[in-house]
Amino acid sequence: MPATPSPAEDFGAWPPAAEPASRRRNRRGRAGASPDETAGITHADGNHPDGDPRPGDPEDDGEPGAPLPKVRRLVSVGVAAFAALVAIALIVGAQTRHESYAVVVFGVQALFVAVWTIASRPPAPRVVGAVGIAVAIGTDAAAVLTHEASLAPLAYVTAGGFIIGVVGQLTRPAGRQRVTESLGSSLIVTLGVVSFASLVVLGRIPHGTQAIVACLAAAGLALFIARFTDAVVPLPRIAPQVPRGGAGVVLGAMMGTAAAGAIGHYLAGLSPLPSALAGLATAIVAVMVDLSVGYAEASRIIDGDEPALWLARHIQGPIGAIAFAAPAAYVASTLLIL
Length: 338
Known about the structure:
Blueprint lengths: L6 H5 L9 H12 L2 H4 L34 H21 L4 H23 L4 H21 L6 H19 L8 H26 L3 H25 L4 E3 L2 E4 H21 L5 H31 L7 H28 L1
Antiparallel strand pairs: 1-2
């Protein structure tokens, strides 16, 4: 006659045999041991039973065990000078004929494509770079050769460039491996070069050249002041992993706004208040894009990725900031100045 199973056999032995010994020890420690007795118990991942990280753990931001990146003053000064040079080049180029200005803009676009392709390290850098250069040529030609100054031709070129980018990504030897990441890089590069081309369109509008001077001066000065302030007083730290100070960001936006208002007072066809408001919008976009690039780079380093090329890593923020401040200048100028 078969033996009658016991209740323990019906419902399973307790504790289960598959339960790890470390979990049983931690469970017993939490149930009956004193805090002093359970203070040294940790899981296999190095955390306490209550889920808090150990003191000094690298994931515990702000703790002594997590070293903070230092602010390199000479690098900050160099980046500030680079941002000022790019803004000056675009401002001086706007005083020339539209065809010549398109050539100046194309040079900045090519630099933007190279820097962002190297810094973002997409899976197919040649495809991303080729699409960016092709879109830059197409948008500059459309901005100059169209009968009326309009952003519509630039939108058509942008759509065509993105389609070409999708086809190029799907037909590369690696197939669909990391295709989403590569398409994202292609989209950012495409939008950046189109943003620069909007300055050529703005220069063809009456008093558009004056608007370019006011808005780009605000953006360039805001970036210069923000970076230069980081070289002097990089406080308060916005984030532990980002070597930037909040004082520079605020001071840069304020000085850029003041510069735009002063330019609006002296240039014909502009007024101080609308120019200051347009400069404020452009300066805020510039400093925020520059700051977000620093956050993105810090995030990649935290994830364990290798840092990008030194030069590209440091100038990515300023040139990206001016790129995406250009459409802000166009919109703010058409709404407030022109």
